[in-house]
Amino acid sequence: MNAPKLMRTEGETLFGNLSGTRIVPDEPFRQGTENQEEVKMKKSVILGAATVAGLAAGAAAAGTVDDIKARGKLNCGVTTGLVGFAAPDANGEWQGFDVAVCRAVAAAVLGDASAVEFVPTTGKTRFTALASGEIDMLARNTTWTFSRDVDLKFEFVGVNYYDGQGFMVPKSLGVSSAKELDGATVCIQTGTTTELNLADFFRSNNISYEPVPIETNAEAQQQYLAGACDVYTTDASGLAATRATFENPGDHVLLPEIISKEPLGPLVRHGDNEWGDIVRWTLNAMISAEELGITSANIDEMAGGTDNPEVNRLLGSEGTLGEMLGLDAEWARRAVKAGGNYGEVFAKNIGEETPIGLARGLNAQWTEGGLLYSPPFR
Ligand SMILES: N[C@@H](CCC(=O)N[C@@H](CS)C(=O)NCC(=O)O)C(=O)O
């Protein structure tokens, strides 16, 4: 089933003789499909942002936190489904690494980790959903970039997964490097950084490809397995999560190249700093809890007071950090209890003991050689 579709012959690429929508490096790909995507997205986001700005100006007292409290639920934007990161389980309950951030925030603000309305979004719809106010925050493997911050007017509150873009191919294709992908058909999700990086990578390596644009990971998986594309490219974590659901994961390989930086993290709209602070420090609480040795198993005991003043400030037995956030003293205790500290959430959903099997790597604590580094709780 996974035999190479096309053989390399003189004058042809490994993946066949591309015609029609063929993209070659000299062609202005950046002015092609992806830029239209960006322009389309930008237009709708600008409209959304205008609406939001209008609302904010008219109701300065009613910030996002008040809206959430009045509604009794956090509207959290997630993916349409990526096992390990965000997907409904057999009982229809959303589970995953990104879902855990939504639940922690709901626990901090509403005292109930289950008070979350999960709103599925695609790569294309996610920013409009946030800008328009349909969701309060987005926790969906979204890369922190300059233009999403500055131009689309969002605020990334931190990074919950340091990632990079990779490539998956059927083993039977016999490819061992992304540089051998000249002429390949590539399944790619629209509205993503993936599209932009792919164009950059092929252009700078002077090779060509034919994009097969898709909207969701489920569609990508289906198209890739059906052979509609030779390659699937997305964040390496997404590739691992996708491959884990295949009947025969061993028939597919992840190529060695990681072609980009994809710092993935939760984001909110510009302009409501109180709300941004809550989401930022909830994420930091999960990260710091791991560093400080606070786990879901020992948190109740530690909340009673310890010899470590930072633990005490974080868990509310000392100081007034909760009050400064407009919350109570136990906000972080509830947030960490919801799904555990960062390390527990990682291990349970995507870690080496799960079928997804991701190593901590860059996502280890700074004390363990990784990049996770929460600012201090003081
Ligand atoms: N990190 C990239 C790509 C994010 C992305 O869309 N990833 C895909 C593949 S891992 C995904 O989450 N799909 C889930 C879905 O289709 O809902 C970005 O922010 O643009």
Description:
The chain is an alpha/beta fold and 378 residues long. It folds into 2 domains: 32-163 and 262-378, D-Maltodextrin-Binding Protein, domain 2 (3-Layer(aba) Sandwich); 165-260, Periplasmic binding protein-like II (D-Maltodextrin-Binding Protein, domain 2, 3-Layer(aba) Sandwich), CATH 3.40.190.10. 37% of the residues lie in helices and 14% in strands. It has helices at residues 33-58, 64-71, 97-110, 126-131, 146-150, 193-204, 217-225, 236-244, 273-291, 299-303, 309-315, 321-324, 331-339, 342-349; strands at 74-78, 87-88, 94-95, 116-120, 137-138, 154-156, 161-163, 165-170, 184-189, 209-214, 231-235, 252-254, 262-264, 267-269. The strands form 5 sheets. A 5-stranded mixed β-sheet has the order 10-9-11-8-12, with helices on both faces. A 3-stranded parallel β-sheet has the order 4-1-5. It has a two-stranded antiparallel sheet with strand order 2-3. α3 (97-110) crosses α9 (273-291) and α3 (97-110) packs antiparallel against α13. The model is unreliable at 1-62 (pLDDT under 50). Glutathione binds next to α6, β11 and β13.
